[in-house]
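User: My advisor asked me to double-check a structure prediction for Replication-associated recombination protein A before group meeting. I don't want to rely on an old file, so could you generate it fresh from this sequence?
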Amino acid sequence: MEPDLFTAAAEERQEKDPSSSPLAVRMRPRTLDEVVGQQHLLKPGSPLRRLVGEGDRAGGGQSPAGPSSVILWGPPGTGKTTLAYVVSKATNKRFVELSAITAGVKEVRAVIDGARRATGGFGKETVLFLDEIHRFSKAQQDSLLPAVENRWVTLIAATTENPYFSVISPLLSRSLLLTLEPLTDDDVRGLLKRALADERGLKGAVALPEDTEEHLLRIAGGDARRALTALEAAAGSALDKGETEVTLQTLEETVDRAAVKYDRDGDQHYDVASALIKSIRGSDVDAALHYLARMIEAGEDPRFIARRLMISASEDIGLADPNALPIAVAAAQAVAMIGFPEAALTLSHATIALALAPKSNAATTAIGAAMEDVRKGHAGTVPPHLRDGHYKGAAKLGHAQGYVYPHDLPEGIAPQQYAPDALKDREYYTPTRHGAEARYADAVEWTRKHLGRGRS
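Assistant: Sure, here is a fresh prediction for Replication-associated recombination protein A from the sequence you gave:
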């Protein structure tokens, strides 16, 4: 199957009849200067600036050739595809988009072969944008290495998952890793104002009152495409009615969503969500239900609420109540299937369970401490007796030699070193004795003692 491709013909059609394209497409940034948000990546002399050949504009000097592979890591809706497209436009390169969900090695090789032929024939070079790269297997990611090493394509890969765990080391080491941040309301607001006035957009045909703008920002939830799609639909409805501004009522009717009834004293979308989680953390079930009700009545996306509850279950409850996370996950799955209004019952169920559960942040602090050590370089090599010994030649290297199989011992625990030398005495998990975590505290004390690491 032919990869998704912004062809020259498609671009020509858009230029001849821009009104035929959705507003989000018409307002696609043409340069890095038009990109909203991600200002930490767009400073003069930044890697992205060098990638498009701008060099260090602050210093006025020449920059070395930019990287041929970039990995963009960030949540959905933060502009990963947009950045890749802008790079292709700024460098006058062909833009080819593949999704790891539907593409395989065959499609990747077809793009690479086409890029080599185009380059060899003095045609346009190619930017290959690979979305959801974390869904590619190791072998599929390996197929990208020759193209990256030989600069046959400029690879820009996008992922919503930590690339240190989802991207193979050879590709990661050859790539520039850029972390994208969620768009702020101010970022989306600026984009809306541009779309209202720009010749590519609505050309000043309608105005957007403050209350309508605020509701539109809440609907968008930091997603630029969602904001522009809703604006286009509401503006079209207003113009059909002969109106010159998009009223709150028109927006509500268009997107079929009630206006968020938050007051203007800072008590908005994220503040109420924060209050919900902090009330759960503080075990105030009534306050938690109050904030939940406000979010429901405001027309908040039930999936957003469910995601916050899942985070709370691990962050603030953990093993003090091992059932908290399964309840939150089940609630999220139910919400996705049934939606409002019935989802309100499910969210109430989960909120009450979490608010009344015993609390512990021991799991949160444990992984935080472990990750901090890794960031500081406190890693070291895996002890030889723990290494993989299943392949030919492993024994000659001493791998897996001396490993004691815990199930062969009466108590099921083998007193041998598991952590690297530099961390052999490091303790990350400090359980509380709240709720069910008391038994985990006993288990930790017993196992560390039998491993020869018990505290005196």
